[in-house]
Amino acid sequence: MSATHGTPAVAEKVGTLDAPRSPYRRKARTRGNAELYSWVFMRASGVVLVVLVFGHLFVNLMVGDGVKAIDFAFVGGKWTSPFWQIWDLLMLWLAMIHGTNGVRTIINDYAERDVTRGILKSLLYVAFTIVVVLGTLVIFTFEPCPANADPDLLASFCTE
């Protein structure tokens, strides 16, 4: 109907814009929701990391004798507890995944050539894998009472 008959003449589409009252239709996505999940993960892992890091700093620096007490025996004593092993493992993994995801985003934003982007992300993933694997091995295979160590450096629970 036309505007001369008292009803507005609204086409379903005006040029390339949708008509104001037409229903919203999602456009086809080519990348899926990976970036959305990445964004949500960054926010959630950031909150958890703040708790883990400040807990770590509080126990290591404020409880007991402070920074003067941090030595091999202190770390050895901490890592005899599964609680602190899991705490430090979570801190390591979350920090590495969080940081790797952030650097991946920067690479995607600033690397203009596909080849450059691929090389940088490959190097990033290799570094991530090395640090996470070695860090996990250190946390779970750490020996607080090594053989032939100086007794002055060992924790009090070590027997010769």
From TrEMBL:
<keyword id="KW-1133">Transmembrane helix</keyword>
<keyword id="KW-0408">Iron</keyword>
<keyword id="KW-0479">Metal-binding</keyword>
<dbReference type="InterPro" id="IPR000701">
    <property type="entry name" value="SuccDH_FuR_B_TM-su"/>
</dbReference>
<keyword id="KW-0472">Membrane</keyword>
<keyword id="KW-0812">Transmembrane</keyword>
<feature type="transmembrane region" description="Helical">
    <location>
        <begin position="36"/>
        <end position="63"/>
    </location>
</feature>
<protein>
    <submittedName>
        <fullName>Succinate dehydrogenase, hydrophobic membrane anchor protein</fullName>
    </submittedName>
</protein>
<dbReference type="Pfam" id="PF01127">
    <property type="entry name" value="Sdh_cyt"/>
</dbReference>
<keyword id="KW-0349">Heme</keyword>
<feature type="transmembrane region" description="Helical">
    <location>
        <begin position="83"/>
        <end position="103"/>
    </location>
</feature>
<dbReference type="InterPro" id="IPR034804">
    <property type="entry name" value="SQR/QFR_C/D"/>
</dbReference>
<feature type="transmembrane region" description="Helical">
    <location>
        <begin position="123"/>
        <end position="142"/>
    </location>
</feature>
